[in-house]
Amino acid sequence: MQLKIALLGGDGIGPEVLAQSVKCLKAIEETFNHKFEYVEAPVGAIAMSGSGKPLPNETLKLCRESDAILFGAIGALEYDNNPEAKVRPEQGLLSLRKELGLFANVRPVKMFPTLLKNSPLKESIVLGTDLVIFRELTGGIYFGEKNISADGTKASDVCEYSEKEISRIAHMAFKAAKRRRKKLTLVDKANVLESSRLWRKTVTEIAKSYPDVTWEAMFIDNAAVQMMLKPTQFDVILTDNMFGDILSDQGSVIIGSVGLLPSASIGTENAMFEPFHGSYPQAKGKNIANPVASIFSTVMMLQHFGLEEEANSIVKAVHESLSRKVVTPDILGSSKYGTDYVGDFISEHIVDSEENLNINDENIGLGKSTII
Question: Which of 117, 296, 319, 334 sits a CA distance of 20 to 30 A from 68?
């Protein structure tokens, strides 16, 4: 297979972890006889230092023309310390999602048996955790109308959703649930928010088309508690933009490191794959960032194109690194290996294998056939 892949390293540790993903992809090319073209482009603070825009027109054009996008991270300390800045690096990511119509964010959260002790929760609680969060990504309060009074003492952010926006990601989530353990949980705040009531109404109707999937609705405050008390009760979680942002953070706590969580952002024409973590600017250039989340995002990219054997070979190599404790300092308290070494180890252990060690018990089905 031939693929053109846009590489958007971004800021902080983004370029460092993305470089390890490229190592793995080059190993996949050699092992499975594929041909990938890599084209780099700036986004975020690094782009602002050049063009003044967090998402330059050239970067957006490249993304539109590519088969897939691999994203690093975005954000810089100078903007974190200046919350009143008119233009911020994060706007580049939000604009990218909106311009490319990446409406569905898919975030698997799976507990690795070798890392049980890395979780702050009891082993009896986290053992067997295997869930996936479907977060609506281009609507809601993050993209709604924003206002602040002239004297700066009153502000508002509008949370707005249409039935169409809810329906398209709900169908994706139900289809994923059919392939997994046939359970879906809608997370909302329908006892207070009108937008959540529309979510509840729309999903209730859509559920009738999936009689083999058991579903329930849960308020966000209860869902946040249940994620910590019994994460194994969840299979597929469907929710809006802000609530999905919150629950994804909790997922990183469950498995013990934000450096292990990948994600995919899917639209009707484009797809982007990125680690869940931020830019971690304090670690930039120190060779301590965990590349596994970025590498697992690459796994999701390969799955998106139906390259299951290739994806599985990377997952097997990651399992090998974990079992041998070839990990970065955030895992198991080890400080022996750095970002580059872990990336080298994983890429060098990628081989053609029939053993199934996927990051999900079942493929979450990111192929274009799931897009409605």
Answer: 319
Active site residue 221: yes
* Nearest Cα residue to 236 out of 365, 56, 65: 365
Q: Report domain extents, the chain.
A: 1-105+260-366, 120-255
Of the candidates 23, 110, 175, 189, the residue annotated as catalytic is: 189
In a 3-state reduction of DSSP, which class is residue 9?
Answer: strand
Q: Which residues 6+ apart lie within 8 Å of 164 measured at CB?
A: none
Distance CA(269)–CA(120), nearest Å, equals 39
**Pairwise CA distance, residues 189 & 39, whole Å:** 42
* 330 catalytically annotated: no
- Assign domain 120-255 to a CATH class: alpha beta
Class of domain 1-105+260-366: alpha beta
Burial per residue of 110-130, b for 16 or more beta-carbon CB atoms within 10 angstroms, e otherwise: bbbebbbebbebeeebbeebb
Q: Could you say which of 11, 53, 110, 142 is catalytic?
A: 142
pLDDT score recorded for residue 348:
97
Rounded (5°) CA angle 210-186-102: 90
Q: What is the pLDDT of residue 370?
A: 31
Q: Which pLDDT score is estimated for 191?
A: 97
Q: What parts of the chain have a pLDDT lower than 70?
A: 81-85, 352-372
pLDDT value, residue 371:
28
Q: Would 1-105+260-366 and 120-255 be classified into the same CATH topology?
A: yes
- Catalytic annotation, pick one of 157, 249, 340, 361: 249
Residues sharing a CB contact under 8 Å with residue 91, sequence separation 6 or more, in sequence order: 54, 55
Look up 23 and say whether it is catalytic: no
Choosing from 146, 164, 201, 221, the catalytic residue is: 221
Contact between 109 and 132 (Cβ < 8 Å): yes
DSSP conformational letter for 93: H
- pLDDT score, position 366: 42
What is the reported pLDDT for 79? Answer: 81
What is residue 355's predicted lDDT score, i.e. its pLDDT? 60
264-302 pLDDT tens trace: 999 999 999 999 888 999 999 999 999 999 999 999 999
